[in-house]
Description:
The complex is a heterodimer. Chain A is α/β, with parallel strands linked by helices. Chain A is built from twelve helices and eight strands.
Amino acid sequence: MTGTRFYQVGSYAAGNRLLDPASRAEQSRAGRPNSLTMGHRACRGCGEALAARYVLDAAERATGGRIVTVNATGCLEVFSTPYPESAWRLPWLHSLFGNAPAVAAGVAAALRAQGRTEVRVIGQGGDGGTVDIGFGCLSGMFERNDDVLYVCYDNQAYMNTGVQRSGATPPAARTATTLPVGGDPGAPFGQGKDLPRIALAHGIPYVATATVAGLRDLEAKAARAMDLHGARYLHVLSPCPLGWGTGSGEAVRIARLAVESGVFPVFEAVDGEITGVERIRRPVPVEEYLRPQRRYAHLFKPEPRPDVIARIQQAADRNIVRYHLLDPDEQAAQGS
Amino acid sequence: MASRVERIEQIEGSKAVARAVAACRPQVVAAYPISPQTHIVEEVSRLVRTGELTPCQYVNVESEFAAMSMCIGASAAGSRAYTATASQGLLFMAEALFNASGLGLPIVLTVANRALGAPINIWNDHSDSLSQRDSGWIQLYARDNQQAVDLHPLAFRLAEELSLPVMVCMDGFVLTHAVERVELPGQEAVDAFLPPFRPAQLLAPEQPMTIGAMVGPEAFTEVRYLAHTRHLRALTVLPRLAEEFRAAFGRDPHAVLGEAHLEPGGTVVLAMGSVLGTLADAVDELRAEGLPVGLLGLTLYRPFPAEALRLALARAGRVVVLERALAPGVGGIVSADLAAALHGLPDPPEIRTVIAGLGGRPITKASLCRMLADATAGRLPELLFLDLERDVVERESGLLEKAPDEEGAT
Lengths: 336, 410
Ligand SMILES: Cc1ncc(C[n+]2csc(CCOP(=O)(O)OP(=O)(O)O)c2C)c(N)n1
Ligand code: SF4
């Protein structure tokens, strides 16, 4: 395959075809490494596949191709390695659902013992493998400051086993184990883990969030993370058309709405201190983000639930304040 | 000539094993403490700190699951990886144990054998390692601290030749905390015996490789078949390595079986681990009285050396399997393997199972002598719990099963 067809349809981002070659996106370079190559079995429009490809290609470039990858069990692992095929063009190891951070730390320890510190390690997993079953290993990896970049592809449920709730499933969302029936339909409020903030509390060298709507930002964060050493954490909102009930061409649009509504704050932090946030350019009410997703359909019909939507809005507003997501000018305008 | 023996020392079993492990030059050690394994990893960490074991990364992890997971990563990245655990720690590793063997990673693990709860009990028996019987790990059981030391270089060598993980089991407290005279192998001799680790598969950017792919029904059986045949290769590779070991260190590591006084028609007692010491004394005593009793120590439990056992036991009259673990609802664990191995012999020996020493209950020479005398006289039931305290059983079952109509009964 030759040629590049990278530009963001319907976005407010500048396309990069007019940029000089040196500052173009990794994916727009003819020489991009295609770490996760075509032909894998992800669903059409899978946010996780998109995110993983961007992260690893950028990291490959940042390290001159000296990376080893460790993957937790989950969609990304299953759709990319149907024996005897593999979609990975870099060294890649799958062990278990709950141990990717520890396995990656083991790889890092081995490389350190061998004096091969130029080879870098990336661990990756879904939100379930990261915030739930692998959490102990991840926290241990953070606490020891192992030289690993761990990337969580957050699609907000256990997609690989059929869309069950995870500790990162947002309130009110329908999953196979939080059905929209009963008095409080969907996932409960007041439960779940905000792992980027937990990562911050570990005081590790680098924590960032990103989404597939900000692909240049995602590339830049992956590259920046590879410039640093020690435990690093990148949390990427990766919409799942199958689990969220959205069109297969909509992952990027939905992710952008998550950012613009304040539902998903995009920030970057060094040594436990937030150093930058992605400002909301076009604020939208959460309803605009929720309405296109079938996992929230029960909030709109048959019986509209403005009360539930208001609670989600409250949480988004809290994010906006906590992370200063609005431009000061715009914030003033909003307040007036 | 390279020194075969660095020094002969009066040394605690754990320390001796730690030094033997250090002589094997592991590059990554990740461990989590649990009694009675603690002294082993404490000593390894000390050797790393003082620079006596270098280059080595000693990693303090948050759980046994992480310890084994780290070993998996380290081994796949081409480093010699080691850890030690016991009991609940081994169970906490279980998921990763099966994974390490399935991925064909030559990790070495010392198990300081300890009972499994509940009820919680920190003392020795074999229920922990035997619970991982089918984990795909090669299992070796040491009878004394000398053998525990010797089995470690052998375990690394075997693991790396077969690209399979090996578990070296030594009885908790009985061996780990016992001070014995041990010959510690010299570094040069170990280096000559155990060449640097050359991994069969490696995570390296120079030659990208996918390890741990998802395998469906079309090939899973074939992959498992290959794992089985590779595991079985230990039956031929280990005796060869043991011979090399003997030539290099001047000691027979008894890597598969250790036997004494096997004679036609006699009673043979088969056991694993430290009880073999007491058994040897008991057997000597009974033989002095003229009883035809022999002893067979099993070092290699997985793969099960069925052929070697058939040869050793073909002419025995009776085999008493002394077991340090219980399969509830069945009885003995090793006995079942032995029965299968001896099946089809023209005149197979009778098999008796004796469950002994659970949760650290001392196994005395006097009880063993009594039991073996009963065995030779044909008075042993098929399954015997040695030294079972009947009054405790009755009291406890009375408390548990207090039926209303029993009240007032005599
Ligand atoms: C110990 C264990 N428990 C459960 C599973 C089953 N399992 C495999 S993947 C998965 C969910 C994965 O979810 P997530 O990590 O969010 O990744 P996704 O598939 O959504 O990308 C589960 C529950 C397993 N493999 N291992
Ligand atoms: S279920 Fe979701 S995460 Fe999994 S491959 Fe399909 S779109 Fe991607």
